[in-house]
Amino acid sequence: MGLSGASTGAGVLSCCDGLLQIEKETELDQVVALAGNPNVGKSTVFNNLTGMNQHTGNWPGKTVANAQGTYRYQGRNYILVDIPGTYSLMANSEEEEIARDFICFGNPDATVVVADATCLERNLNLVLQTMEISGRVILCVNLLDEARKKKIRIDLKLLSQKLGIPVVGTSARSGKGLNNLMETVMRLTRSDQKTNPFPITYDEAVENAIELLRPAVDHVLGGKLNGRWVSLKLLDGDESLLKSLKNYLGYDLLSFQDVVESLERARSLLAENSITGDLFRDRVVTRIIQNCEDICRGVIVCDKEKYAERDRKIDRILTSRATGIPIMLLLLLLIFWLTITGANYPSELIAAGLFWVEDRLTDFFTLISAPAWVKGILVDGMYRTLAWVVSVMLPPMAIFFPLFTLLEDLGYLPRVAFNLDDFFRKAHAHGKQALTMCMGFGCNACGVIGCRIIDSPRERLIAILTNNFVPCNGRFPTLIAVITMFFAAAVSGPFQSAVSALTLTIVIVFGVFMTMIISKILSKTILKGMPSSFNLELPPYRRPQIGRVIVRSIFDRTLFVLQRAVVVAAPAGLVIWLLANIHVGGISLLAHCAGFLDPFGRLIGMDGYILMAFILGFPANEIVVPIIIMSYMATGALTDYESLAQLHTLFVSHGWTWLTAVCVMLFSLMHWPCGTTCLTIHKETQSMKWTLLSFVIPTVTGIAVCFLVANSVRLLGLA
User: Fold this and answer.
1) Mean pLDDT estimate for the chain
2) DSSP calls for 550-586
3) What is the per-residue DSSP string for 375-433?
4) I need a labelling partner for 416 at 20 to 30 A (CA). Which of 194, 447, 488, 610 fits?
5) Cβ–Cβ < 8 Å for 674, 620
6) Is the entire prediction scored with pTM above 0.85?
7) DSSP assignment, residue 176?
8) What angle do CA 102, 108, 111 make, to 5 degrees?
């Protein structure tokens, strides 16, 4: 997706130099910043206004994503910039710093702050901080439909009078109020009119310190920024603002003698009143919260005192110490059962269609009398690998991702993070790692990208390095096939899929356990540190929009992941075919490599062919089992079996036991990330060192666990 064609032509203008490239059609285009807390519907407002006229990327030099989009209203283009969702602009995290810097230095013509009508008082904290920076702020009170259901009434007119800025009510999910929002943006940006924001007055000592410093700051800035707010930040010791001022305006405030002297006098004044260190920020934050309470008094009326009682009752069950974890595991079991049961038939249909195309390609190469090696490389190698990856990956993803997105839309995933927060904290990791771990179930590459939500660089790296310990969609086929053949085969009928789902859930719980163990080890060694605190907001439960969930999960996740897998599967097919069909001394290169690896493979409970299959499956984990089949049968091309019973017989004839199956499952769970994930890790960390470590850590762990299990069972005489 991208902006309109005109926006990328000769009329493209640069705005916000060094911060973010804004693409304009004409100089009359208006830039609108869209701010707000997480979970207030900011993205829904953005998507409904911009539609398909949007594109995403990263903020320059950052791992945090940005989105820009355009909408046209009354003959003029408005460029909407969706800045990171934050609870404040105190610059305690990368997201807060980016949001603050864009409002300060991005020169937006207006800043729209989206707030949640069901918890408006808490959201006003960000609104007041934004008003301290900019004189062109609009408050969008979203989710009015949910507020009505909870018997909450908001007097928007009175709120606008108290705040001194335009206030618009919306229900973005249904599109209500967005026209009024656009009209308000147009009126504010088309005139020189400035709002009259509510002035925050701090303690007398703080106010005196600000007024002592402000004249020197105003003299240097020359009106380019709000001198009162900059003075407040200087007194707070905000070094990130000093850095940003130097980067974007070229001002090093502390190089001006007047500013330094005034700052020293102002801090001495604060010290005389015993306001030092963190106490200054506490005073500032406390005063903002008091103002939020004062503003909301008379504006918000709750006809039903216990309007959130339903959510609290549900949370008493879903986040309880006694029932939270068991319910989470049951939901995980249900999702896996639905995925396993539902994916079989469509997978067979897709495979039949794709392999029918393969037959037609074979007929074509026969018709033109192409050399056998050409047909082998293009059809038996590249196309067959592609067909296998698509037929195996697409159906489970088309089921798993919508179910996962449904839980996300419902508001359950933050409860998962809440339930696991204590465990991750004990592992000295971040509670939000629970969310990124859940993303990894669908695709580890998506899980790695999701680690951007973790503010601490140390904890973000821990989450990235351990994301591979939960199996992605590409490893499910191997796990499910092995589980069904060696552990669920004793059960027939509909119960077989239930046993498979239960066994798979146990394997995944072990993966989660290993995630926490390795996180703890990393936090005690190469990534030392204590877990940072964070506020995890539990959003209200919402009725999911089924159509939106399906579209978002298919286009944003399923097809995105499938595209990446397809890109690496074709070259992998070429390499696999060459190794299987180039013979040295009457034996294929694949067999030579497997023979070399066999002693080590048997040491960890497998064999050389299995290890070789995992190595060749680096580009796409889905092809591990087909490579094992091809190797055992020496067919020279990927081969499918008509039934798992036949496959079980083939594996047993090559020495597989229940111990081999367990070691294959453990190694599949814990081995190197696929090629797509490694590329994603390198892009996110911008470091070859961390990319290599992300490869080495799970691989060494998988080898160690398999070695311990295999040799312990052998010593006990159980295999």
Assistant:
1) 83
2) HHHIIIIIIHHHHHHHHHHHHHHHHHHHHHHH-EETT
3) HIIIIIIIIHHHHHHHHHHHHHHHHHHHHHHHHHHHT-HHHHHHHHHHHHHHTTS-TTH
4) 488
5) yes
6) no
7) B
8) 85
